[in-house]
Amino acid sequence: MGVVGRCRLCLTPAELQDSHFIPKAAYKLIRGKGTNPHPLVVQPGKVVQTSAQTRAHLLCHECKQRLYHQGEDTFFRYCYRGPGKFRLLNMLRAHTPLLDNDQFAAYVVPDSETSLIEQIGYMGLSILWKSAAHGWRDGDSTLPSISLGSPYQEQVRQYLLNAGPFPEHGAMVVEASDENNRLIAMIGTPATLKLPKHYLHWIDISGIRFNLLMGARLTPQMKELSVFRHGQRCVLVAKQQEAMLANDYLEHLKALAGRVAIGQK
Length: 265
What we know:
The protein is an alpha+beta fold. The chain has seven helices and 14 strands.
């Protein structure tokens, strides 16, 4: 018999599965060729090539399958899979951007694709939740983690379990990297930035950056950008990844929020 314990998602005692922090399919996608084919992994202050895949006994079989069917399956069909193979980016570029400058473009998601974007966002949310729910180790070192804080940790768990709504004071903003973005073929580690009115948690995986904004003072305009909101959904295309951080990131989102709100009137 395997490891028995309490599943971190459904909280039910069960035989726990050997779960990857980031699904192993991501590592397979970005393996290179030559003498060192291991994927590039972005860690604090450095980029390394490694075959290490962070794992732990965290979830029961049912919850592991839940995360796969509600998010991971769709994500890996639409993420960056190599040059010219990025279905999410291609889908967005089939439409006229809402905003477009030298740093990013913003696209309104067609009504027919809103479920798809929700599933991609669900995948990112599950990764960030796992980072906060468990202390993950990568060999002899501890993987950077985030803290969602109370009550958001429990609210996110309930949402992933289909037992509650997405947090009222939260937003999930999805970015796709364009072909010139240096992070398009990398796997990142979770990071957090404290901003004046909220926290920003993010992670990069296979050409998609997931930005989770949380805070009681998060503005209604920022919430409008969430892929989990009702109505019009928006996805960003980042041309310069670093430009989307800190104050620049906040200002771009404020400007975008105003345009999205105008478009709804």
